[in-house]
Write a structure and sequence with these properties.
Elements (H helix, E strand, L loop, with lengths): L6 E7 L3 E8 L9 E4 L6 H18 L7 E8 L3 E2 L2 E2 L14 H8 L5 E5 H11 L8 E6 L3 E7 L3 E2 L41 H12 L15 H13 L3 H25 L3 E4 L9 H15 L17 E4 L6 H14 L1
Parallel strand pairs: 1-4, 4-7, 8-11, 11-12
Antiparallel strand pairs: 1-2, 2-3, 5-6, 8-9, 9-10
Helix pairs in contact: 3-8, 4-5, 5-6, 6-7
């Protein structure tokens, strides 16, 4: 490797692991990606030690000095603004109110650091792997909750004035439970999109479905905990189970309905669906349900061009960056900012 070559690191800080990647000046992956155990609950200083160790592994893998890392992108699983953590989430208390970006930069001797949240990082990752896409990109990622991010044309994440934009899981949707009640969301409000589309929502839905007379003998009843029941739903849906398919159909249609309002606001042109559902064998069917919900709510112009009816104005794709998407995304951003 050339001694004057420049590299840029992406550090994806999660509650369980820290995934890291290195890219060169062209934006190409340099060497193998490195994953280390996360120590976020032990405090940010402990995590900094993990990050430095990962940086050493990344650079040694390709035989370069850490001094050749000219910029770092970092994402955190918590709301933040201008480098400062605003909420604890799954972090230790000492993260809150600390300028993590500047503190880590100082620890590295002044290497510039860009920091964002994990939803924005994942969106940036999906943008970075689509080299031929130059428009906007809206990422929606069902997981334990419902995250998202918006990348503007050119590759900049839209973060908002306080770094808290694109809380897509907490827009309201006009759907109610069978008894007419609005579902409770983990944020403390009711009726949020996340209360319908998330792993937490699946736990509620499977409980409600199993309480029905027609499902009293369903084999999933034998599974001990509601958490395990929710995880098992994907396998049952894969096998064509009617109850499981019905739960995912409802989830997909409501997700599409909510996306229609987001598209009405941002008109991104490309919507990428991430999360674990991207890995399921029934994902094409799920995407069809998303499109059904979208078509129910979206104006026709957000579906097809009024000038050329063959032109689709909002495309849907599955995420393709995988588990390393966020690390690649912030590495890509560091390259754009600091090269």
């Amino acid at each position: 490797m050339a001694e004057n070559a420049k590299y840029f690191a992406g550090l994806d800080i999660g509650g369980s692991t820290v995934k890291t990647a290195l890219v060169d000046e062209k934006g190409d992956l340099a060497g193998e990606m490195v994953e280390v155990r996360s120590h976020v609950k032990d405090g940010y200083e402990a995590t900094f030690g993990q990050l430095e160790g990962a940086l050493d592994q990344l650079t040694s893998n390709i035989g370069v000095s850490r001094d050749q890392v000219c910029g770092i992108g970092m994402d955190v699983p918590a709301p933040s603004s201008d480098g400062v953590i605003w909420g604890r989430a799954n972090l230790a208390q000492d993260w809150v109110g600390t300028n993590i970006r500047d503190a880590f930069s100082a620890r590295l001797g002044g290497t510039p650091v860009y920091m964002t949240n994990d939803g924005n990082a994942a969106a940036l990752g999906e943008y970075s792997v689509r080299r031929k896409h130059h428009g906007a990109l809206l990422l929606i990622a069902p997981g334990t909750g419902l995250g998202g991010g918006l990348v503007l044309p050119g590759g900049t994440a839209y973060e908002g004035a306080n770094g808290m934009a694109l809380e897509v899981g907490h827009i309201s949707v006009p759907h109610r439970e069978d008894d007419g009640e609005l579902p409770q969301c983990s944020c403390g409000k009711v009726g949020c999109l996340e209360a319908w589309v998330s792993l937490v929502a699946l736990r509620r839905r499977v409980g409600l479905e199993l309480a029905k007379e027609e499902n009293k003998d369903h084999p999933i009843q034998a599974i001990e905990t509601v958490e395990e029941k929710a995880f098992a739903l994907r396998d049952y849906a894969t096998d064509g189970d009617e109850m499981a398919i019905g739960i995912f159909r409802q989830q997909g249609q409501i997700l599409g309905y909510g996306i229609a309002d987001l598209v009405r606001v941002f008109d991104p042109g490309l919507v990428v669906i991430g999360g674990g559902l991207a890995e399921t064998s029934f994902r094409d069917q799920y995407m069809d349900w998303v499109r059904e919900g979208f078509a129910e709510r979206a104006w026709e112009v957000y579906q097809r061009s009024p000038i050329n009816p063959d032109q689709v104005t909002t495309r849907f794709e599955w995420a393709s960056g995988g588990d390393w998407s966020a690390a690649l995304g912030v590495a890509y951003s560091a390259r754009e900012m600091f090269r």
